[in-house]
């Protein structure tokens, strides 16, 4: 284990979190992988979405070298994290009610596709409404969030 240096403490914490995810979320991760594979096998398409800081994780899923080439980014201008000034505007847009409907109505997403919605807190209107509206359209939805963080905050 660690000798107490900041770098060692960081690595110990990261390894501990990964072990915890492996132990506590293995079943959910397997189910998500199966859902994605089944979607592709049935001719559906795969999309990832995240707003604000969570957009970086969605972009990583899509653009990662060696990643799943079938994954598409569902980008919303102004909430991609790096495409807006001031940066706080992206956070404000995450809280706009009804924006998800406008985005999905003009997106290529259709019934039979799958959408991975990434939201650290799971509390802002845009990602929550994105998941709800996508499901209503017949899209399979996988949510990625921090349960520990989400339970310490209230929904907006």
Structural summary, described in words:
The chain has 6 helices and 4 strands, in the order αβαβααβαβα. It is of the alpha/beta class. Helix 4 (99-105) crosses helix 5 (125-136). The protein is globular, with a radius of gyration of 17 Å.
What oligomeric arrangement do these chains adopt? single chain
CATH architecture call of the domain at 44-150: 3-Layer(aba) Sandwich
Number of strands: 4
CATH-defined fold name of the domain at 44-150: Rossmann fold
Structural class category: alpha/beta
Mean pLDDT reading: 88
End-to-end gap: 40 Å
Features of the shown structure:
single chain, 156 residues, alpha/beta, Rossmann fold, 6 helices, 12% strand
Quickly describe the structure.
With 156 residues, this protein is α/β, with parallel strands linked by helices. The chain is 49% helix and 12% strand. Helix 2 links the parallel strand 1 and strand 2 (71-73).
Topology:
Elements: H1 6-41, E1 46-50, H2 53-63, E2 71-73, H3 88-93, H4 99-105, E3 114-118, H5 125-136, E4 140-144, H6 147-150
Parallel strand pairs: 1-2, 1-3, 3-4
């Amino acid at each position: 284990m660690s000798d107490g240096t900041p770098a060692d403490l960081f690595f110990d914490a990261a390894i501990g979190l990964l072990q915890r995810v492996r132990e506590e979320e293995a079943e959910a991760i397997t189910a998500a992988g199966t859902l994605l594979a089944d979607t592709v096998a049935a001719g559906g398409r795969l999309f990832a979405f995240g707003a604000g800081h969570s957009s970086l994780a969605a972009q990583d899923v899509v653009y990662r070298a060696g990643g799943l080439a079938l994954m598409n980014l569902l980008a919303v201008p102004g909430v991609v994290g790096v495409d807006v000034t001031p940066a706080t505007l992206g956070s404000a847009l995450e809280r706009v009610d009804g924006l998800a409907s406008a985005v999905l109505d003009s997106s290529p997403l259709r019934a039979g596709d799958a959408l991975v919605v990434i939201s650290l807190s799971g509390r802002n209107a845009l990602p929550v409404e994105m998941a709800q509206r996508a499901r209503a359209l017949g899209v399979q939805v996988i949510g990625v969030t921090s349960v520990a963080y989400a339970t310490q905050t209230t929904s907006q």
